[in-house]
Amino acid sequence: MTLKIVGFAGSLRTASYNKKLLRVAAAKANALGVAFEEIDLSGVPLYNEDVERVGFPVAVQKMREAIAAADGVIVATPEYNYSVSCVTKNAIDWASRNPNVFTGKTVAIMGASAGGFATVRAQAAIRPILASVDALVLPTPEVRVSKAGDAFDADGALKDAALDGAVGKLVARLVSEIQIRKAGK
Ligand SMILES: Cc1cc2nc3c(=O)[nH]c(=O)nc-3n(C[C@H](O)[C@H](O)[C@H](O)COP(=O)(O)O)c2cc1C
Prior knowledge:
Elements: E1 4-9, H1 17-31, E2 35-38, H2 49-54, H3 58-69, E3 72-76, E4 79-80, E5 83-84, H4 86-95, E6 106-112, H5 120-132, E7 136-137, E8 144-145, H6 161-184
Parallel strand pairs: 1-2, 1-3, 3-6, 6-7, 6-8
Antiparallel strand pairs: 4-5
Helix pairs in contact: 1-6
The structure holds flavin mononucleotide (FMN).
The site of flavin mononucleotide has 16 residues, from helix 1 and strand 4.
């Protein structure tokens, strides 16, 4: 059966560098024969337990179902004030609610930032968050895009071949870990 990976970028803006990076990863997954679905977070409201008691909002339910049905997840997070963006954290918070749809999921993280530090701090910050939801996060390879305003060409491809190769290696490792874990079941 075809493997399925889902992913989201923790940014709502249309021209988001993290959305571009996610789409580079999506193409790598497709090239390996793996289906990829990008989760749209634009309709996901801020987490509110009062709302949750009434029922998950439609966009939240859609996001949760997509993650639950996936074999693996890719998270492309921006860095906001030395941590993950609120959009990234909010999505994980909604996904973590009973039942936690991240439990046991194999997850790859990546990030793009406009500055020079390339989401180093955001990626360090997201690891304990994903540990708290019982996800298995790949340790390497690390994919960090700095100076993202110059990193992509007009077609959305990464200009730097080494960086593009790192995305390919990360996706290949994600697929391989998923296959190993499935075979072990
Ligand atoms: C509130 C806020 C805080 C930010 N803090 C950081 C930061 O700590 N480190 C960094 O590298 N970039 C920071 N940036 C710049 C982001 O890297 C930049 O906005 C980037 O384009 C966000 O990702 P996106 O293109 O996917 O939306 C910040 C941006 C915003 C709006």
